């Protein structure tokens, strides 16, 4: 049977009780095949110290190899090139790009260091699966070590931007060339595949050599969409425990019959949070009968607070919700309730189940798993309504959601009103379609299909 699986991602975790997102996605695959999970442990070495050798822990058949970053690596590779250049470019937020030569130099150096630490541990027949924008050149750095018999795939969790947006990055050609060291490139959507292929054909003199194969820089590779999903069964189960039922009942009682609208996001400028608050304000203005009858519950966990744009956003949101609550609220009703921290997954599942509307309105998003979690948590006989941004990758398949333009606050307010008034029959029908998408993109199928292609893809 197949070789070991080597997963490389910016952050490692544990395979035992992974908490959401990428960790859930890779840990089951690792447990199935056995292998290595390599990445950053989230620690920063003391000022002036080197990163040192990574620690190795064993969890059954999986070796977790995780080391620290130096302060300089953290600032220039992680906060710098990854999160102040690639992240905003991939999410069309060119106003947040800040480029410095040190950033890209460090990005290269860290990828090379990781490759030097990982390379000697690899064996012929291993499948190497690299995740996300922090690690685009890792494959090229591994190939430079002339390791034999490796198949390497890369999956991008964030959107791949159109060519003229990518070209804002001074090193765009180097980045794309380094992707050509992989045998398989996976994107979230067909739209991302098209953006990548446009770049390769228009800017790098590439040519198609099959429906999903492209040649450039003297190498061929396979390019496909693998839309990621959630562990649907596990998420649904979380809403059915006795504890969850009690929580759901308590939440409903506390809302006194008001319709709860739920938003759950990392506190990130790609998620369209100020626009969402203003759309909610428009709902209250344009449809005054909703005043006192709806509550927007926003859970927004702060991330990357060392990047200025993120701390500014938090202040803006606190100011906005204060202003809206001050203008519309009364002694018995607080229109917006926001919680700026992480919430246990079981509580999230109950929150989704207790909410009439899931409001998922990123300005741009690779996929967006919250949309899928909200759908999975609904009661199929009396489900809530998903309002989803057209610019989330999820919208490519979840066409039975109420799709909205997240820049258009009036359209979002109208969608909220439509959702509040939607008949049970229509809700049931839309939910059935959305659950079908959830099942088709279940995370187990996602990782199995990526690995199945990686295993057979021809190597140029
Ligand atoms: P993210 O940008 O993090 O992921 P998303 O897909 O929504 O976005 O995943 C977030 C996960 O974290 C969800 O499982 C959500 O429930 C959880 N979460 C969010 N806020 C939370 C909170 N306050 N407390 C607890 N849990 C919280 C990136 C890309 C996405 C892509 C995923 C997976 O940006 O587009 O869908 O990777 O590929």
How many DSSP E strands?
Answer: 16
CATH topology of the largest domain: Rossmann fold
* Name given to the CATH homologous superfamily of the largest domain: Glycogen Phosphorylase B
Mean pLDDT: 95
Q: What is the CATH first-level class name of the largest domain? A: Alpha Beta
Radius of gyration: 23 Å
Count of helical regions: 16
- Major beta sheet, specifics? 10 strands, mixed
Ligands in the model, by name, code or SMILES, are: adenosine-5'-diphosphate-glucose
- Structural class by SSE content: alpha/beta
List the helices and strands and how they pair.
Elements: E1 5-11, H1 21-33, E2 35-44, E3 55-59, E4 62-69, H2 71-90, H3 101-118, E5 127-131, H4 138-143, E6 151-155, H5 163-166, H6 172-179, E7 184-187, H7 190-203, E8 207-210, E9 213-216, E10 219-225, H8 232-238, H9 242-254, E11 259-267, H10 273-286, E12 294-302, H11 308-328, E13 336-339, H12 345-353, E14 357-360, H13 369-376, E15 385-389, E16 402-404, H14 409-421, H15 424-440, H16 443-456
Parallel strand pairs: 1-2, 1-5, 2-4, 5-6, 6-7, 7-10, 11-12, 11-14, 12-13, 14-15, 15-16
Antiparallel strand pairs: 3-4, 8-9, 9-10
Helix pairs in contact: 1-16, 2-3, 9-12, 10-11, 10-14
Bound molecules: adenosine-5'-diphosphate-glucose.
Describe this entry's structure for a reader.
The chain has 460 residues and is an alpha/beta fold. The protein is 43% helix and 20% strand. The chain has two domains: 5-229 and 443-456, Rossmann fold; 232-440, Glycogen Phosphorylase B (Rossmann fold), CATH 3.40.50.2000. The chain contains 16 helices and 16 strands. The mean pLDDT is 95. Bound molecules: adenosine-5'-diphosphate-glucose (ADQ).
């Amino acid at each position: 049977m197949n070789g070991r699986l080597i997963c490389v991602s910016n952050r490692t975790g544990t395979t035992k009780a992974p908490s959401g997102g990428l960790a859930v996605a890779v840990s089951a695959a690792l447990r199935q095949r056995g292998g290595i999970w390599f990445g950053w442990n989230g620690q920063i070495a003391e000022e002036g110290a080197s990163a040192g050798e990574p620690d190795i822990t064993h969890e059954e058949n999986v070796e977790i190899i995780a080391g620290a970053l130096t302060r300089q690596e953290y600032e220039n590779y992680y906060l710098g090139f990854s999160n102040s250049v690639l992240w905003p470019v991939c999410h069309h937020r060119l106003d947040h790009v800040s480029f410095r030569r040190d950033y890209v130099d460090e990005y290269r150096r860290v990828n090379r260091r990781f490759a030097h630490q990982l390379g000697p541990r690899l064996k012929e027949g291993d499948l190497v699966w690299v995740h996300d924008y922090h690690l685009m050149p890792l494959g090229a750095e591994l190939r430079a070590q002339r390791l034999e018999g490796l198949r390497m795939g890369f999956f991008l969790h964030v959107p791949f931007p159109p060519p003229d947006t990518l070209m804002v990055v001074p090193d765009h050609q180097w980045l794309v060339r380094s992707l050509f060291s992989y045998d398989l490139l996976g994107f979230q959507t067909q739209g991302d595949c098209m953006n990548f292929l446009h770049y390769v054909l228009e800017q790098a003199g590439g040519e198609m050599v099959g429906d999903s194969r492209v040649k450039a820089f003297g190498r061929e590779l396979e390019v496909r969409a693998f839309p990621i999903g959630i562990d649907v069964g596990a998420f649904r189960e979380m809403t059915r425990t006795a504890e969850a039922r009690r929580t759901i009942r308590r939440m409903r009682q506390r809302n006194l019959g008001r319709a709860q609208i739920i938003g759950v996001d990392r506190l990130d400028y790609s998620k369209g949070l100020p626009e969402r608050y203003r759309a909610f304000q428009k709902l209250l203005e344009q449809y005054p009968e909703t005043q006192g009858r709806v509550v927007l519950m926003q859970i927004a966990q702060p991330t990357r607070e060392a990047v200025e744009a993120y701390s500014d956003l938090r202040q803006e949101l606190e100011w906005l919700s204060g202003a809206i609550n001050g203008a519309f609220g009364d002694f018995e009703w607080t229109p917006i309730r926001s919680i700026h921290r992480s919430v246990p997954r079981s509580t999230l599942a109950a929150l989704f189940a207790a909410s009439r509307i899931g409001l998922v309105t990123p300005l741009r998003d690779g996929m967006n798993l919250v949309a899928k979690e909200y759908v999975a948590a609904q009661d199929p006989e009396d489900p809530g309504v998903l309002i989803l941004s057209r610019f989330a990758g999820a919208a490519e398949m979840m066409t039975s959601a109420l799709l909205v333009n997240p820049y258009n606050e009036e359209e979002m307010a109208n969608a909220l009103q439509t959702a509040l008034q939607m008949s049970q029959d229509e809700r049931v029908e839309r939910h059935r379609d959305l659950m079908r998408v959830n099942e088709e993109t279940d995370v187990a199928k996602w990782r199995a299909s990526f690995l199945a292609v990686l295993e057979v893809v021809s190597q140029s």
